[in-house]
Amino acid sequence: MPGKTKVGVMCSLHGFPAFPPVGHISLCEVEGRVHSMHAEQADVLLFTNAVASHPRITITRDLLHSSVCREDSRRIFLPVSETLFKKLTNVWYEQGLVEALHVTAEPQDGREVPVVLQVIAAYMLRVISGMNYIRNSFHPHLRESGDKLIAAVSQTRAWPISPVRCLAWHPHCTKLAVAAWDDSVRVYSPGTSITPILKCKSQRAVSCMAWRPFSASQLAVGCEEGVFVWHVDPNSVVTRPSMSCATVLKRPHHSPVTSVTWNPQGDVLLTASAADTAMYVWDVAMEKFVTLRRVGGGGVSLVTWSPDGSKVFAATTGIIFRVWGTSQWLPERWTVVSGHVQAACWSPCGSVLLFATSEEPLIYSLTFSKVDTAFQGDNTSKTALPIVDLTEVEVNEGERVGGVVVSLMWDTRGQHLAVMFKKTDLVAIFLTELHALLQVSPCCLVQGVSGEIPNCISFQQNFGDGACLTIAWSSGRVQYFPLVHSDLKSERNIFQETAISPDCSLQNISLASTFRTM
To answer: Which residue intervals correspond to the WD repeats (predicted)?
Structure first.
């Protein structure tokens, strides 16, 4: 239920510090001062050593294993003569029934197709089109499918062509998973030259990733096939783990998987697909699941577990979104004016939810109490309040920032909020303070090399010197943008506070405890 935390004065994109000179790129913020250098000489280590041990990452087309579309790969082979039956069989196998019908109804290679077959194929295409129209009328979330559906809801800008499709920091270790355009996942760690590559033929159209808390080795990868939970042994020297190292979780009609999230204890995994109105809560070890389904709103495009474990946010492809209470798995239903919720993030305490829609240049806030009490009357306002106006503004001659949001990220200290936009090429970072009032104020703007656009962003979760925003740019360059403050040094060692072994695995915890409570 909404709590008593209120929202301060609405913030906007006015008031950011001076913009870097032309040709410069933003490097870091140290003690409140933003540093930039000319792109050719840029070196963040001149200002701070906070990311000195971080792996240097650039995802180039030459680095990627060729997984271009079959249509392009066939060009390297000489054409061969095929019978009509063999041609249709190959097309059906590789591209599906509908494409085979198109080839039959409208042959493009001068091949003679019997008129009867052409008429039958054309008739079947009209029937399929009519059925799709009726289906889409009742289920609007199914109007798009496959890559188009992923691109429509992805928090990665220009997902189909982005060199980096997804970033995932481990919650406890300095370990970064990078999903690339060829659907391979590379795992980078400091102090080693070994970079495991997670890839298999059926792992196609990777859209989301999440590391399992309290385990250094398990990574959930959501894709068109379902979810691959990879076991990456941190002590192994193998760079290409086989499929025996992965557990595949999939359900009928639950594809493509567009969002995955672990509960904070790492007991269970929650998966969602923008093409499916159901969410699945998995006990990965047992490969068992519980289905969560509600009518209305369309497929579930985005899910995220609150850091305190008490709530789950679930956005749909329609105007409806829900916040589930995990104690009894009952949802509260909310609606937006238009579009759908594109991005959302929780405060570290789990009491505040920030979200942005696909059509408005605004960030909204919802506040929840820790515990339901008798002092919360039925007249408590259940309204999402706008806290940041992101209307596009000009910050430099010809340089603009703002508009509709693609991605929101809140650092684990609750002091920095990063925003990536759909059409402008700067990343905006805001300062946030969460006390009696949620206060948001401008911090800095991050600019890349000329011609680069930001594709995806993520905060490092175990950064001890403040906050570290990771940005994957359209050139394939992965940038660390540290926001360093001397008074934000790590106050405690998580490995001493919790029963974690050296390989980051939790000791004496029941993996099925949360699963049994549902």
So the answer is: 250-292
Kindly state the average pLDDT of the residues 86-90.
79
Same domain for 88 and 18, yes or no, is no
| Cα dihedral across residues 122, 128, 131, 137: positive or negative | negative
What is the structure's pLDDT at 70?
Answer: 41
Tell me how far apart the alpha carbons of residues 257 and 210 are, in angstroms, rounded to a whole number.
Answer: 13
Separation in Å, CA 62 to CA 66, 68, 181, 193, 196: 9, 12, 12, 19, 17
Domain boundary among 89, 120, 145: 145
3-state secondary structure of 367: strand
Q: For residue 98, what are the domain limits? A: 75-145
Are residue 386 and residue 454 in the same domain, yes or no?
A: yes
Domains contained in the chain, number: 2
Residue 175 in any domain: the answer is: no
- Are residues 328 and 317 in contact, defined by beta-carbon separation less than 8 angstroms? no
| Residue 172: DSSP 8-state | S
Here the tokens at position 283 are 């006990």
Count of H-run helices and E-run strands, the chain? 7, 34
Say yes or no to pLDDT of 107 above 90: no
Residues 6+ positions from 291 with CB-CB distance below 8 Å: 278, 279, 280, 281
| DSSP states of 213-279 | TT-SSEEEEE-SS-EEEEE--TT---SS--GGGEEEE--TT--SEEEEEE-TTSS-EEEEETT-SEE
Q: Are residues 83 and 139 in the same domain?
A: yes
Q: Looking up tokens 């940005």, which residue turns up? A: 471
CA dist., res. 165 & res. 181, Å (int): 6
Task: State which of 145, 174, 199 marks the end of a domain.
Answer: 145
> Could you tell me if 480 and 405 lie in one domain?
yes
Looking at 9-13, 80-84, 370-374, which range is the least confident one? 370-374
Residue 170 in any domain: the answer is no
pLDDT at 142 over 90: no
Task: Give residue-wise pLDDT tens across range 187-228.
Answer: 999 988 889 999 999 999 999 999 999 998 999 999 999 999
List all residues 6 or more positions away from 52 whose beta carbon is below 8 Å from its beta carbon: 45
pLDDT digits (tens, 9 = 90+) for 494-513: 333 333 333 444 333 333 34
